[in-house]
Amino acid sequence: MEGLNKIEGLLNRLGIAASYTGFSYAVFAVEQCLGQKDKLLMVTKRLYPEIAKQYRTNWKAVERNIRTVSNIAWRQNQHLLEELAHRPLKRRPSATEFLSILTLSLRSEPQAILTSGQSGS
């Protein structure tokens, strides 16, 4: 449960509200990727179908909704997204890149990510 709270908190800090369908999909995806490193490989063939099955939808809807929350994060808190990616981003990350940024940042520096940039927001 603690891992879910960290993922949800990070998405909230990126400006993504839980009311977006992609929020739940992204939480589930990152949770799966944190548990199994190879989930970030073959995302459209393995991860998106798994999420679609869990939420009774299709993989294209999963990708579209995660892309939507990636767009929101890009617009709402590009600075934090770049901080998580450890590099400047010249364009909005794809849905897969977004999941990768979240997963790798939580895997490598979970405590630092949760506390950095929290100045009176």
Helix and strand composition category: mainly alpha
Query: Largest sheet at a glance?
Result: none
**Low-confidence regions:** 111-121
Count of separate DSSP helical elements: 7
Number of domain modules: 1
- Sheet-strand content, in percent, reads under 5%
- How many strand elements? 0
Order of helices and strands: HHHHHHH
Instruction: Name the CATH superfamily assignment.
Output: Winged helix-like DNA-binding domain superfamily/Winged helix DNA-binding domain
Measured as a percent range, the helix fraction is over 70%
CATH top level label: Mainly Alpha
Shape: globular
Computed CA radius of gyration, to the nearest angstrom: 13 Å
Question: Average pLDDT, to the nearest integer?
Answer: 89
**CATH fold-level label:** Arc Repressor Mutant, subunit A
Query: What is the distance, rounded to the nearest whole angstrom, between the alpha carbons of the first and last residues?
Result: 24 Å
Tell me which CATH architecture applies here.
Answer: Orthogonal Bundle
SSE layout and pairing:
Elements: H1 2-13, H2 21-35, H3 43-55, H4 59-76, H5 78-85, H6 95-108, H7 110-115
Helix pairs in contact: 1-2, 2-3, 2-4, 2-6, 3-4, 4-6
